Structures are given as structure tokens and as C-alpha cells.
Amino acid sequence: MTEDELRKMLAGKALYLRGGYLDNNLSFNEHGVLIGHSPQGSFTLSGVQIDKVRVTKHKVELEGERFGLHFLGALPYEDPAKAFDRVNITPKKKPVKITVDRELVIKPKVKKEKGKPAATPARAAQAAPPPSVASAPAPPTPAAAESEPSAECAAKEAQAEIAAAPAAERPADPKSVTTTTSPAHATQVLKDALDHIFAQGLDERMMAAMPDFWKLYYEAVDNKSDYRPSDPNILRQSMVDQKARLETNFEPASNQFAQDYGVAGMSLYHVVIGADGKPSEIAVARPIGFGLDESAVASIRKAQFDPAIKDGKPVPVMLDLVVQFRIYSKRTAVASDEGSGQTASGPSLPGPYTLQDKHQQP
Question: Does residue 344 have a pLDDT over 90?
Fold first, then answer.
């Protein structure tokens, strides 16, 4: 596969890293499996755009930028084209660098028998029996049997070629490199690896790997409707005598991406509160992106609620929770400390965040 073919396949397109890897330096083996470790996060932080492609004998080198998805407050039934912005979150002078090892193509070597010259077309024609003479198929010659290199020889040859290559062009995981005599097979292995690493949009495999609260959101987007629980026994807040209420406040954590790029605002979640007061099904209703929805949902799952009451008995209901994320800079921390008569000590952590509960259904 040439550089031009890879550029047409990857360059300039809105891709996602299927594994949600957050490191900007990533290496994959020839099957698209990550070499080493990387923190993983939300798909809303794993957008990439490839700008440069370089192909060597042993690997493919890709360079580009990382993008975060910042949702703009659209509900699932509103225009999805206006639902989010792609925000470039690449650190200055630190582009995303991705390498993918390649399967090594080895040319088969034909060994000739000692004392016999190599066969030429003319000699082969002279040696062939007359057409009228019937003869059984000749058994394979030792030379033909040795035309395909053995696995052991191929492995040794591959390691020798890798050792002879410049250090910058060697595969990231030399021990896992396999060999083939077919360039077409090596090309297919590379295509499969790239498909294992990148998704061109939110395809079925990306959707299948998402947590349930995102699946429910995109199901609503596909249906152009808002989320509704599948269980008809789950009531609305307006249908009960005593509404479900949040017992404990909580502060969903922000992250450095959101703080660095000024992502703040409110997000909305549909939460089914069971008769036991515990949250069960959660669906994103109005996302914010940048990995903050995952933080909000994790905090909601840990929260405690008073269950709804109808006819004197606790019943399951669906309520809406609004979570507000704010930017908390050092300056605001100092102002807050001055107002309380306390002295600021060191940089402040992102936060605090407030949560409100909405008792009325939209």
C-alpha cells in the first residue's frame, strides 16, 4: 500500500480512536493492538484528524490533531447538524503521533540442486516429453519444495531485516511481526489494523462499545424523539403524590481538557429512580461533551434519592437532573478566599459544580 493510497483513506477525515486512547503518542502492532498502555476516555475526547502520512518498510507513521466534541445544548429531536462543535485540543507543538507496524513481505528464494544449472525455458522445452507420450505428473523437485521459506527461516530473515533497518524505521514491537510472501495479504492485514484503530464516524462498532447512557441518547436521535423508559410501569413525576428527590448533593469532577478549553455549562439527564430510591437507567438528554457526561453519570449513580410515593407506596419514576459545570480558575479561587477571610494556598482543583433536580417533565 502506497502513501498516496493511505492519504486518500485517512487524511483530512473526521476519525475516532476506537479505544478512546488519550495519549498523543500511540504505537500499534500489525493487528491494530495497542503496544504498551494509555489512559482511555470518552469518545467525545478521541476525535482525530490525520494530516501527514509516511510509509516505511516496517511501519506506517501518522501525524495529526486531536479534537473534542462540545455539545451545544440541542435535544435529540432537534437538528443534529447543530448539535456539537469539533474543538481542536492538540497541545501546541505536540501533534498526535501514531505508528502502526506492518507485516513483512519476504520474497521466496528458489534453491537449485548442486551440479545442475538453473533451468531455462529452452532447456525446459528440450527436456519435456513429446506431446504424444502420456506421463504421470512429476513429483515436486527439491528446488520447488524449498521455494517457500519455512516459518523458522522466515522469522530469522525478518529479524535480520529489522535489525539492519535504521532505528527510526524499525517496528515498535519487532517480536510480534509476522511474514508473508504475498503483498496483497500484507495490504489486507494493514487495512484490518487501521479499521481496528480508527472509525470513520460513529459506526455500529463505535455505538456498540458506548455505555448505555450514550446508546439511549443516540437511539433517541435516530428516532427524532426524546427518551422514554421502555417499562410502562415507570411513572412521571407529575403522576405521583410525592416526587422523588435528591437526598445528597454531589460534585461531578471536571477534567483538564474542559478546564483548558473553557467548556462549561449545563447538561441534562433522564434518570429512572426505582422504588428503592436507587438510580437505575440513565440517558443523556442534553449532553455537554468533553468527557464531562461520563463524570456526571458516575456521580448520579452514587447519589441517594428519596423514592416517589403514590397511594402510600414507593413507585419507580423518571426525573430530570440538570448538572452545571463551571470553570474554576485560580483567580476565582482567590476571590472566594478573600471573601471568606481565608488565604489561598496553591492552585485550585477544578470545581465546584452544582446539581439541580427538575421535577417537571419537558
Answer: no
